[in-house]
Amino acid sequence: MKLLKKLTAMTSAVLLGVSMTVHIPAEVSNAAPDEYHDDWLHVNENAEIVDMDGNPVWLTGCNWFGYNVGSQVFDGVWSQNMHKMLNEIADHGFNLLRVPMSTEILLQWKNNEPDSMIKINEWENPELTVEGVVGGTPMYSFDIWNKAVEWCRENGIKIMIDIHSASTSSSGHQVPLWYDSNFSTDDWIEALSWFADYYKDDDTIIAIDLKNEPHGKNDGQGMAIWDDSIAENNWKYAAERCAAAVLEKNPYLLIMVEGNEVYPKFEIGSTWDSPSVDYAHYGDESKQPFYGAWWGGNFRGARDYPVDLGEYQSQLVYSPHDYGPLVWEQEWFKKDFTRQTLLDDYWYDTWAYLIEENISPLLMGEWGGFIDEEHDPTGDNKKWMKILRDYMIEKKIHHTFWCFNENSGDTGGLVYDNFGKWDEEKYAFVKPALWQDENGKFISLDHKIKLGQSGNGVSLDDYYSGGNTSQSTIVSKPEPTTVSSTKASNNTLVGDANEDGQVDIADATAIIQHMGNPDEYALSEQGRINADIVNQGDGVTGADAVTLQLIEAKKIKQSELPITMEQYNKLLS
């Protein structure tokens, strides 16, 4: 793994003597805290998503589709009461709802064009009728959507929409790019700009996922590339253009940028123009021209060409998708896989490096699947789901589970019986990955409104006023996966700057914070002793922080510490 290609921005700032600050749009910092303006989020210098007071939060939600496929409303409202289903999602502890949309439906609403059809049960949903009575005339779909926004708000649920496809279609997600023969890149930008502007004074809408699963290989079907060009199919360039337009309307929004599908193996001479398969070496993955991934899951390009949102960089979150062998038996599943093999074979270089190297927070926009014996007789899918779930809990990766719907053919959902009953086995499996306090109460992303109606939810103010202001209660220190923590003879744990009993990337963060502001981020005497791992005796320096990152990058073992400056320079060469 070429982990020295780019040091984290925090370490670079220390080595260059630059003060480390997060650029928050002036409007955010000056916004009056009230019911509609006090819940905006941003990313801090530690690559954490935090609220306006700097408190870390954990976005743990689910997906509910329908608006992207032609229903003109959430699927399931054809049989069940929408208000009741939103209440249940909140009561089950999901604090974020990711809602697939299409460019087409947003422009339809913007232009006040009529519905082609609308799938609601007027007898189950009198609140969604013009007359407000059982069996009445269905409202216009945009009015129904705004009822959903209202009911999410009253439940303490925040909303993130994603453009799942350009054209409204159940198969629209198969199109690899953010544009198609009906809707252009400019249409896509116009749609999301309008949406951002419309809800700029409502922090129920807290994020936009710019495009679901950009993908494609060089096979004539369309291909999302990732480089520094201004090609129309360059996903990085398109995402930056769209994000700029959205943030001009509402600089408070989190912007989710997904990956693409493939990345050229430049080291063997491949380029974006290479054929998608080298048939002369078919079956030999090492000689194929591209590194593959799930659709929207490949962030190798972000290491070479990170997304640049300029003054609004604090609003950027990368958002991979990951699935198990029941969706497709990828190469990394063709063995007795473990967390370590998944990291080595796929996760780390594809997306996990972003969180492991403290470059960016991650939101796993889609993950899920069948776990019952009928669908998963080998148990491999459930095994994969548990490994990913536990990794996300440990690293506090934000996520939205796929999905609430029962009608997702290759994953199933959280409900069944025509959206009428919860799959308690699957929910129990997901529940540990939902944000909860020490009493098991689910935590809202709203400062004032508790999550749900059942009494088993709390607001952000409830949570923090309860004494939970320590970062460690929100973002737990991750267990080191590859670092051996060996104590020196003087009982010093070499490298353990924050004295939490382990040596990992959090110690590098503690050193960087201390160097940037020693008064606010003081290290204890023992912490400073532990942190002085390069050229011992010269105090705590940026070299110590970089070396701890090199441990995470497997360039040196903790047991080899301390090291001389000469050894350090060789590691960087």
Care to describe what's here?
The protein has helices spanning 9-16, 26-30, 82-91, 103-110, 141-155, 185-198, 235-249, 300-304, 339-356, 380-395, 424-430, 460-465, 471-474, 505-516, 525-531, 542-552, 565-572, and strands at residues 42-43, 49-50, 60-63, 96-102, 158-165, 205-209, 254-257, 263-264, 290-291, 316-318, 363-364, 398-401, 415-416, 421-422, 442-443, 457-458. It has 573 residues and is α/β, with parallel strands linked by helices. The protein has an eight-stranded parallel beta sheet with strand order 10-7-6-5-4-3-12-11.
Largest sheet features? 8 strands, parallel
- The shape, in one word, is globular
Q: Which percent range describes the beta-strand content?
A: 5-15%
What structural class do the secondary elements suggest? Answer: alpha/beta
What's the tally of helices? 17
Radius of gyration: 24 Å
Ends apart, CA distance between termini: 15 Å
User: Mean pLDDT, as a whole number?
Assistant: 88
**Low-pLDDT stretches:** 1-32, 467-491
Output the strand order for the largest sheet: 10-7-6-5-4-3-12-11
Query: What proportion of the residues is helical, as a percent range?
Result: 25-40%
Beta-strand segment tally: 16
Give structural attributes.
two-stranded antiparallel sheet; 17 helices; disordered N terminus; globular; 573 residues; alpha/beta; eight-stranded parallel beta sheet
Secondary structure blueprint with pairings:
Blueprint: H1 9-16, H2 26-30, E1 42-43, E2 49-50, E3 60-63, H3 82-91, E4 96-102, H4 103-110, H5 141-155, E5 158-165, H6 185-198, E6 205-209, H7 235-249, E7 254-257, E8 263-264, E9 290-291, H8 300-304, E10 316-318, H9 339-356, E11 363-364, H10 380-395, E12 398-401, E13 415-416, E14 421-422, H11 424-430, E15 442-443, E16 457-458, H12 460-465, H13 471-474, H14 505-516, H15 525-531, H16 542-552, H17 565-572
Parallel strand pairs: 3-4, 3-12, 4-5, 5-6, 6-7, 7-10, 11-12, 15-16
Antiparallel strand pairs: 1-2, 8-9, 13-14
Helix pairs in contact: 3-5, 4-6, 6-7, 14-16
